[in-house]
Amino acid sequence: MPASTPMPTPTPAPASSPVPASAPAPSSRRSAAGARSGDGRARTVIVVGAAGGVGTTTLAALVADAVGFRLGVVVQASDHSTGDLAARLPRLEPATSRVGVHDAGAHARAVGPLATPPENAVVLVASATTSGVLDAASALTALAGSADVDLLARTVIVLVDRGRRPAAVDTGPLRAFGLLGIVSLPRDGALVVPGPIVVGHCMPTTTSAVTSVVSLLGW
Prior knowledge:
The chain is of the alpha/beta class. The chain has one domain: Rossmann fold (3-Layer(aba) Sandwich). The protein is built from seven helices and seven strands; from the N terminus they run βαβαβαβαβαβαβα. It has a seven-stranded mixed beta sheet, sandwiched between helices. β3, α3 and β4 form a beta-alpha-beta unit. The protein is globular and about 40 Å long. Mean pLDDT is 82; it is low at 1-39.
């Protein structure tokens, strides 16, 4: 896979209970089924951060590896500019499919045009904190303003928890957007180590969370 093939980039809630590993919205079955119908065509998942430093590139690398494993292919992995995604990918091999994962960084307002084709989807990454939920809600509001009225129904949120104990956050403000689903990614020491991610060193909870994301996306 090439190190990076940049794609063009268009110019308080109260704490309550831990976020479940996977919480699909009512529309998820319909949206996922629609996504599966596009498996034979070019399709891109845009992974974007609600803020900087929330783990967007790490999540993009995990999704790229998981999708490739599930489909038996090497996906096209790209990022917005810096090439950081290549440094986190578990494998660097030439792409063998038209399926892509694009790391958009913390640029939610630029995601709409990239995700416009109905086969494409968005994974929004935020911290599993009250402020992270507010950041995610702000990013979702930006996505809601895109020309694609169905974009939110093709969006999965991943709340990254870096605490030693499961975070308790109210995700109600996010569910109101009619999302494809909400997934919690618990703390995992293997993801803190710089360089390529060694998937075999990841916690089972990480594998479960990434599997939930990929399933919600329709793979």
